[in-house]
Design brief:
Elements: H1 3-24, E1 29-35, E2 41-42, E3 45-48, E4 54-60, E5 68-71, E6 75-79, E7 81-82, E8 93-97, E9 103-110, E10 114-119, E11 131-136
Parallel strand pairs: 1-4, 3-11, 7-8
Antiparallel strand pairs: 1-2, 4-9, 5-8, 5-10, 6-9, 10-11
């Protein structure tokens, strides 16, 4: 192998390692979704970039039980957050369940672009229209 070829291989390898490390250490995309007793998410849609970590504050400003529930979106490094004994431990779920008047932070890194529906999993709330969209670009 010539010196020129060896140098090119080393530079290419360094570039790949740098790219891989920079995505995992990237500053998170910070978003907030709110809901209250009107059964509406505010905002109704969220947009994030694939491959970049997300820190999502889920805030319940209402007086009754609500949550943020998203199933089926490919993601890694998922940390769900629950209060009040609620649990959403199913595989492939991203969920935040704050008590009334409180907030939790959910963390995840989306890996595939697309549009994914989220909703409130409390009985009857999704059917009443408590839904939103997460757009991954």
């Amino acid at each position: 192998m010539s010196v020129r070829t060896a140098t090119a291989v080393i530079v290419a390898g360094f570039a790949l390692i740098t790219a891989a490390c920079s995505s995992s250490g990237a500053e998170p995309q910070r978003l907030t979704v709110r809901f209250d007793d009107t059964l509406i998410f505010d905002p109704p849609s969220l947009t994030v970039r694939a491959g970049r970590p997300v820190s999502l504050t889920v805030r319940n400003t209402g007086s009754v039980d609500h949550d943020f529930y998203l199933r089926g979106m490919p993601a890694r490094d998922v940390t769900n957050a629950m209060q009040g004994g609620h649990g959403h431990e199913e595989a492939g779920v991203i969920a935040g369940h704050p008590k009334a008047g409180a907030a939790v932070i959910v963390r995840f890194t989306p890996v595939t672009t697309g549009t994914y529906e989220f909703w409130c999993s409390v009985t009857g709330h999704k059917e009443a229209g408590m839904r939103g969209l997460l757009i991954v670009s």
